[in-house]
Each structure stands twice: as structure tokens, then as C-alpha cells.
Amino acid sequence: MEGKMTPFKALFAAATLINLATASQPGAARPVAAPMRNLQWGQINFLHTTDTHGWHGGHLQESQYSADWGDYVSLAEHLRRRADAEGRDLLLVDTGDRVEGNGLYDASSPKGRYYYDIFREQAIDIICTGNHELYQAPTADGEFQRTVPNFQGKYIASNLDYIEPESGKRVPMAQRYKRFRTKNQNLDIVAFGFLFDFTGNANNTVVQPVRDTIKEPWFQEAIREQPDLFVVIGHVGARMQEFKDIFQAIRRQNWFTPIAFFCGHVHVRDAAQYDAKALALGSGRYFESIGWMSIDGISKSKDMATSASVSFQRRYLDNNLLGFYHHTGLNSSTFPTERGRKVSKMIADARAALDLDHIYGCAPKDLWMTRTPYPGPDSIYSWLENEVLPDVVVNEERKHIPRLGIINTGTIRFDIFKGPFTKDTTYIVSPFLSGLKYIPDVPYKVAKKVIKILNNGGPILSSPDVANPRFMAIPEQITPREPPVQPAPEAVFDVLPDQDGGQKALGDPDRQPALVAGYTTKDDLGSDGDDAVHSPLNFYNVPNCIQAEIGFPADAEPETVDLVFLDFIQPWLILALKFSGGDYREEDTVPYLNGTLTELMVGWIKENWKIHC
Ligand SMILES: *[C@@H]1O[C@H](CO)[C@@H](O)[C@H](O)[C@H]1NC(C)=O
Ligand SMILES: *[C@@H]1O[C@H](CO)[C@@H](O)[C@H](O)[C@H]1NC(C)=O
Ligand SMILES: *[C@@H]1O[C@H](CO)[C@@H](O)[C@H](O)[C@H]1NC(C)=O
């Protein structure tokens, strides 16, 4: 048998080849095949990313989302080529929150040292700003000085100004809107780029409330243009009032013109049908998803009768190499483009330079934000409340005083998976710079009511002085969610990509893989939006805030406590104290500990999760 390859050996050789040729990041989980639904190509087609939060290296620990930004560059190149060949148009959209939430952005000093050059490699046609680009003044500077010029002519800021540091002059962050024609069909498009009515920005930007922007003369003129299609992109959830207001303003002037909305901020896959000729698409979060929208029946004649049959379709692509092979008909050796490979290498080099795989400790089990009930043994919030906060909320000078430690659930951004907790994981789980403050010696009968008001006091806390209390919770909960749907028993999908991208017909029961858990989206168009068919994940709501009681006497209630809290929630906390009968002001709050909550949590992990993985 010497020299002759057995079938087994041949298979093994092929698999090894694939490993070498696969792009994505070194060490990333291998994608797993799933039954697939195809892309529905239309006259004009869009690829949409949003809320990528620095995850441009992909999800190294999750096989279903382990492609990287370089793979997306390759995907877009192939799909553009197909659009060109077939005389269709393809546009790429990104709706903000590109930064904060992953070591690739947050771990460098200054932040984003590698991110700007990586992100710009994707040829995005319409792009706008999210709130995360604006919390910290240097982030907004970076946006204005780097991302805006990187996407010159593509970047739109309909309701956002920047204040130049030297002159103090207030200028538009970018053009207010743009009118352009598509490459292949010469479609006439008017596009806008909005941010929701965000108030937490640093003082070097100014966000104009949307209800005011739509009264501006430039906007009123723009919506009186007679394009073939309006494209409204925004860091705004599909079911948030800001987009409804824009929709109504446009419709008052244009009863029939189709409008495509691209949404962000709320981190969900969602499509909202505003009317028969307007669809709003939300494309998830953290570069797990790439949204697809296609439109047919766009009329260039402005003849209302012929534009009567506009139709919209949508697809949510998992950020998954096998899915990308499927949608392009390519495989591991033909899929990566030169530019895509270059970008994957830029990311790998940056991850190595930042030492993102450096291990701080080893998580003994999975800890979930919303996949298990809170409180509960596998809840990340119960872990914080019962294990972490009692150990870290300790000020040496006041450690004998009982205290309440209150943090908001939104400060946690991602699950912790069993296994290595790395430098990268740190920024993934909590990228924020918030620290702990306190109010000393608050009567316990006042302090103990605060958590209830923070969590249930929506109406009570709806004061003009503070933002919506829901902003303390996780973004995924800002708009109400449908429960997960079971995958349809009848296969609406038609092919099953193999590990090498070859396509196998469904129907052969031996070839049906066990479904991987993932998105099972239900939106206004139905429950067939996801490209890969998954088994559903549970989703449990979490409160706005959680609280740990620390150093309490065993037998009695304390008279007074130190009320310790994450500085992010201060405006709501002060208001909640008023409602519970405590008259405190901002001046009464003092730093409790040095360091951010994230640093305190990592310190705890280094100490308590020392075991080897
Ligand atoms: C913003 O606040 C900083 C720090 O308080 C201050 O130095 C700066 O002048 C302010 N900038 C503007 C544009 O108001
Ligand atoms: C990919 O497809 C090309 C062209 O169809 C083929 O020659 C090649 O063997 C395939 N590669 C793999 C790894 O399947
Ligand atoms: C923070 O650190 C400074 C300098 O080390 C120290 O003087 C101060 O007391 C610390 N504050 C708290 C609240 O621990």
C-alpha cells in the first residue's frame, strides 16, 4: 500500500489544506455547517453592518461568528462583482458604534491605534456615527480626524456637529445628506445619516434632536427632491420614535417614493415594515451579523403607477465563512481575495502586538447575560452580585461600615465562556471606564428603596433632567423583543454547504447536521430571515441594576449604610434617592475606590480563577 493514498488519508489531506487556506483569525473556532437560506438578489442590494464595537477580528470562541473583517472584505468584493456582471447595484452601509467593546479597539494606547486602518479597508458607501463614537472626547476627535476623511464623501452626519479643539468652532461632523447615482442602474438616491437623541456625549460634539433636525430648511429641501429611492441610515433602532418621525416627515412630501432605513443601537436583528414602500432593517451587534436588503420594482420614471410594485426582502447573514462560501459559490481556496487576506493579516498582527490572547484566569463555567434567568447559578449578574462585588467593594478606611453596591446591568456587554479569560475578554465583557463612587452614611430605610425605584421606576424616573432609565440596562432590551421562534419544520432552505463549501442537496437525512444554537429571528416579514437555520437561544430579561449587600450585620438591619454605585448611574441614583426620601446632590458623592469596575473585576479573576485551563 506504500505510496497509495487511502480514502481516509485523502480526506485528511484535504482537511489539512482547508485549515491552511481558511482565512479568519489564527485560533478562531472552526465554522460548523448549517442548513442555509439563499440571498434574494434584487434591483438594488445592500450589505449592512452595525454596532460592531471593535469585533473586527470576529468571534474567536464562537464557531458560528468566527469570520473576520478581512473575510467580509472578500465577501463584498465577490458580491459586487456579481452585481456588476448582472447589472444590479450593491451598496454597503455601516450605522455606527464601531468602537468600544473589544480588545482590538480598546487595548491599545491610544485606543484604536490599529482599528482605523483595518476598518477603512471595507469599501463602505454610506456611513454614520453611533453614540459610542462620542462618549469620550478623544474618540470623537478620532472619528472626525480619521474615520470621516477615510470615508470622504460617504460619511453623513444629519444631526451631529463637532467642535474644533483649537478654534472652538462648531462645524458639521460631515455632510448633512448626499445625493448620488448608483453605478450600474443610475438610480437617483438621496441619503441621510442620523443619530438618536443622544445626550451622554462629551462636550466636543453637539447632537441635535431629530424632531428639530427635520424642521431644518436643508432637510425640508432634501425631502422635496424627487429621487428614485431615499436611503435613511442611522444609529437608531427600527422601532424608536426618531425613525418614525423621519419616516412621517418624508411621507408628508413623498407618498410613493420607496424608503430604505438601516438601523442600529438596539443590537437586534429586526425588520420593521413602516408601509408598503418603506422597510427598516436592523442588523444585530458585535459583528455577529451582516444584514442584507434587496429592493425590486424601483421606478425611474417618477410615474407613480409603475412604481406600485416595490418589494423588499431581507436576510441576516451569520458572520460565518461557510455561509460566505455558500452565498458566493466559492470555497476556502477561491474565496479569500488579495485585499481580504491583507486585512485578516493586519488584524492578526494587531492582535499579536496587543497580546490579546494573554490569559488572566480560567472561567470555571459559562456565565450568561440573558440565556439563563437572573438570579440564577449561571447568571453573570448573580456571579457579580454574590462573588465579585462583595470582594472588591472594599474601601480600607470604611470596610467596617455596611454597604450597598449598585451597578447597572448595561455595564456588562457580553457573556463569559468557560475557559481562558484573556486580555481580549476583559474589553469584550466590560469596555467601560466607569468607577465606583459613594454617598456616606445613608439611612438604610432610604437606601434600601433605591434599587426598586431604579428597576421599576420608569415613569417615576422620567424626569427631563435624566435620560431614559432603560439606558442603564443592556441595549438588547431597549425595544421589546419577541420570544425566540422555533425553526420551521418544513425546509425553506435548499442547500447545505459542506466544510469545503461544496453544496449538498438537503433531503439526505444522513447529511443533516444537528442545528447549532443561534439567532431565530422573527420580524415584520416573518421568521425566515436568518441565513443559517439555528435552534433557538433563550432570552431572559434582566433588571436595569443589580445590588449586593456587603458587610451587613448578621442579625439586624443596619441603621445607615454607605451607598456605593457605578458613577454611570449617578443621575438616576440621585433622583431615586429623592423619591425614597433622601435629599442628596451631586456634591454629596465621593470616589469610593480608585480604578474602573473592569479593573476591579479583572483583579478578582486573577485572584480567584487561577486554575489552569
Ligand atoms: C470641555 O470640557 C473640558 C474639561 O472640562 C474643557 O477643558 C473644555 O474647554 C471644554 N470644551 C468645550 C468645547 O466646551
Ligand atoms: C475550490 O474550487 C476550485 C474551483 O472549483 C477547485 O479547483 C478546488 O479544488 C476547490 N478547493 C477546495 C479546497 O475544495
Ligand atoms: C486614590 O489614589 C490616590 C493616590 O494614590 C490616593 O491618594 C487616594 O486616597 C485614592 N482614593 C481612594 C478613594 O482610594
UniProtKB/TrEMBL annotation:
Q: Which UniProt keywords apply?
A: Signal
Domain Calcineurin-like phosphoesterase: where?
A: 45-268
List the InterPro entries: 5'-Nucleotdase_C_sf, 5_nucleotidase/apyrase, Calcineurin-like_PHP, Metallo-depent_PP-like, Nucleosidase_C, Pesterase_C1039, YHR202W_N
Domain of life of the native organism: Eukaryota
Every copy of the Putative 5'-nucleotidase C-terminal domain together lies at 366-574
Signal peptide as annotated in the record:
1-23
Pfam families named in the record: Metallophos (PF00149), NadN_nucleosid_C (PF21953)
Q: Which PANTHER family match?
A: 5'-NUCLEOTIDASE-RELATED, SER_THR PROTEIN PHOSPHATASE FAMILY (AFU_ORTHOLOGUE AFUA_3G04160)
Which protein is depicted? Calcineurin-like phosphoesterase domain-containing protein
Provide the organism lineage as a comma list: Eukaryota, Fungi, Dikarya, Ascomycota, Pezizomycotina
